[in-house]
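Entry 0007
Protein: Metalloendopeptidase
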Amino acid sequence: MNDVDDLKVGHNERFSHYEYFDRRKADYETFLMPTDFVMASELDDHRQNSDDWVLYNTDKFEGDMDINVIDLANIYPNVDNDDTNSQNNVLYNAIRNRHQLWPSPRIPYAISSQYSPYSRSVIAAAMEEYMKRTCVRWVPRSVKDYDYIYIVPDRGCYSMVGKTGGKQTVSLGTGCIQKGIIMHELMHAVGFFHEQSRTDRDKHITVLWGNIQPGMQGQFEKYDHGMVDSLGADYDYDSIMHYGPQAFSRNGQPTLVPKIPVSIGVTETQRVVVTTASEISQEPTNGSIHVIITESCKNIRPDCDELVTSGNS
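Output (structure tokens):
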């Protein structure tokens, strides 16, 4: 595919002539503008794609996680394939290392100048949904912000997990300009792994190893409690962080089969769970979005008490 993404946007005629991005343009940091959020409010939600195939990059850890050598050394020794009955089983895949958690709900960002107006509007829609349903605040990076995420149209969809320090890339390339996909990558940036990597996953889902692409079995490993933190949540088939049923399939057949009749895979109506380095204060569970509120969130958002009570915005 050419550097200029040639996918068109479909049914919304206002945006039908826009491309997603153009890598021929100079790449410099910009921020979302009020007009991007106005355009976001006019997007046709039914038109948006919900394909998650773009998350399964064979050259990325678990398909869309940008992990360096040091991170891999920390992850693989902690993989636990046997001890599924431990009292310390992972109940949600939040990163345990507090130094990699953002210290407050305020997370600075910048966005590449290479994105089209349409793509900016979809990114704005994803961030707005994130802020509507959680206490995380995506804010334009200021000169005082050393740590921030930089959203760029690199090859594919990927993100580091948690705060890595300095400028860290979140890639939203070809096929990634979908609200659900963007929220998925932002969840990684906040500090979450994939749902099916939980230590207790074999109680809830069957991995069909024979259907996995050769060499990709490592994408389906589990972590023990030394790598990820338990947030006390039940296994969530509806998590926006869950692989789809044919992830890394070699033959088009399922690689993951739920043990109850439910759907899995990234859509735009799934649960979003967000925490910061503060202690968890509440865990509302009703509503279409699963929100975990922290004390630091409650200090900055006036309707957090209502969120805690209702589980909705």
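Curator remark: Residues 1-18, 58-93, 273-313 have pLDDT under 50 and may be disordered. Residues 108 and 142 are 8 Å apart (CA to CA).
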